[in-house]
Design brief:
It is globular, with a radius of gyration of 22 Å. The chain has 2 domains: 209 residues, Spore Coat Polysaccharide Biosynthesis Protein SpsA, Chain A (Alpha-Beta Complex); 181 residues, Hexapeptide repeat proteins (UDP N-Acetylglucosamine Acyltransferase, domain 1). The longest helix has 12 residues. The mean pLDDT is 95. The chain is of the alpha/beta class and 400 residues long. Strands 14-17-20-23-26-29-33-36 form an 8-stranded parallel β-sheet. The protein contains 7 helices and 39 strands. Helix 5 packs across helix 6. In the C-terminal section; belongs to the transferase hexapeptide repeat family. In the N-terminal section; belongs to the N-acetylglucosamine-1-phosphate uridyltransferase family. This is Nucleotidyltransferase. GO terms for molecular function: glucosamine-1-phosphate N-acetyltransferase activity; UDP-N-acetylglucosamine diphosphorylase activity. One of its GO terms (biological process) is UDP-N-acetylglucosamine biosynthetic process. Pfam families: GMPPB_C, NTP_transferase.
């Protein structure tokens, strides 16, 4: 059995995280989303093929180059998921197909492998109009309807399939869609008219990582499924409550208080006198200084949060350096759900508490305050004492 991962998407809705890293490389604890998927698939398949963008910056290429034991294919000139799969060429045996921007658990893979025929994993969601909705009869796929105006069903296409090689024949027969892409769902719908495609009604963990706050959601699930361990060094007078994962090379200095679940990645240094609240995720080589408080946030590799700072319900990109006393607010005055700008539209996050989404290599001066739901682009610089009350562009020098 072989597997194909489609990982050529741009990830514009995840900006500013994707200013400096490809969408499939959002962090999952001490790893990344695509590496997590590869590790799951390796238990069941002999070969893994990954479709990546045809044009890559040197910055992006470095991420894909670190993937080992897989074969990379560049997507051709045509856009869309069908075009991405076609770039692999015909596969002469049954294979798994997985979208590279979804998070799921191992049971999803096992569920489709239970079928000798074609199969698709369907999951039930509350917002089906944002996805490809599955119509089925007696667990056999009839059709996938992309983003219908009205919810004809609450089961949607999860992006996990088991196909026989005939799928390539149907890809050859489809035309370009109204979006200017060759859509895999068009080929699947053609196949469903001629061959049985079983629908697996899956109830396990599944998240489409399409919006920034979903990176926090994914890491919370991953941490919940992780066993506690301590491979680091803990000073005297450190208080740890609940499940905590401390990786090799990490140090927790005296007076720090850790309230699990918390993940402390390799070579992180915490404290002294720091407070890590539930669902703090420190991915790798992070420095958390004296009297810092962090809550339900994902801090990417090599980022530093010095003394007297607060980070709540936020995502900080790699190589961020916060000035001392930087405060990230996470709750609106009116206590309504925090909205965030996604591709020019203000979208509700569905979260009462959400701080900032900060791209890589951002620097803030001392005593900076950042309001809830603010996005700060990669390489931006925030002047000392500023109150950040609007989104900050990539590379911008912000002073207020």
């Amino acid at each position: 059995m072989k597997a194909v991962i489609l990982a050529a998407g741009k990830g514009e809705r995840l900006e500013p995280i994707t200013h400096t890293r490809p969408k499939p490389f959002v962090p999952v604890l001490g790893s990344t989303l695509i590496e997590y998927t590869i590790d799951l698939l390796r238990k069941y398949v002999s070969d893994i093929y990954i479709v990546i963008p045809s044009e890559l910056s040197a910055e992006y290429s470095a991420f894909y180059n670190r993937l080992k034991g897989v074969k990379l294919y560049y997507q051709g000139k045509n856009s869309g998921t069908a075009a991405a799969l076609a770039s692999v060429g015909n596969i002469s045996e049954d294979f798994l197909l997985v979208y590279g921007d979804i998070f799921f658990d191992e049971d999803a893979i096992r569920s489709v492998l239970n079928f000798t025929e074609n199969a698709i994993v369907g999951v039930k969601v509350n917002n089906p109009t944002e996805y490809g909705v599955i119509l089925m009869k007696n667990s056999i796929l009839e059709k996938i309807i992309e983003k219908p105006m009205e919810p004809v069903s609450y089961f949607i296409n999860s992006g996990i399939y088991k196909f026989n090689p005939d799928i390539f024949t149907y890809i050859d027969k489809i035309s370009i869609s109204s979006r200017g892409e060759y859509e895999l769902t068009d080929a699947v719908n053609l196949m469903a008219k001629n061959e049985k495609i079983f629908v697996v009604q899956y109830k396990g963990s599944w998240i489409d990582v399409g919006r920034p706050w979903q990176v926090i959601d994914v890491n919370k699930i991953a941490l919940d499924n992780k066993e506690p361990k301590n491979l680091g060094e803990i000073d005297d007078n450190v208080k740890i409550i609940g499940k905590v994962v401390i990786e090799e090379g990490a140090k927790v200095l005296h007076g720090s208080y850790i309230q699990g679940p918390v993940y402390i990645g390799k070579d992180c240094i915490i404290g002294p006198n720091s407070y890590l609240r539930p669902y703090t995720i420190l991915t790798q080589n992070n420095k958390v200084g004296a009297s810092v408080e962090i809550k339900e946030s994902v801090i990417m590799e090599n980022s530093k949060i010095p003394h007297l700072s607060y980070v709540g319900d936020s995502i900080l990109g790699e190589n961020v350096n916060l000035g001392a006393g930087t405060l990230i607010a996470n709750l609106r005055f009116d206590e309504q759900n925090v909205k965030i700008n996604i591709k020019g539209n203000k979208i509700s996050s569905g979260r009462k508490k959400l701080g900032t989404i900060m791209g890589g290599y951002v620097k803030t001066g001392i005593n900076v305050s950042i309001l809830p739901g603010i996005k700060i682009g990669a390489y931006a610089t925030i002047y000392p004492g500023s109150i950040v009350n609007r989104d900050v562009n990539k590379g911008e020098f912000y002073k207020n």
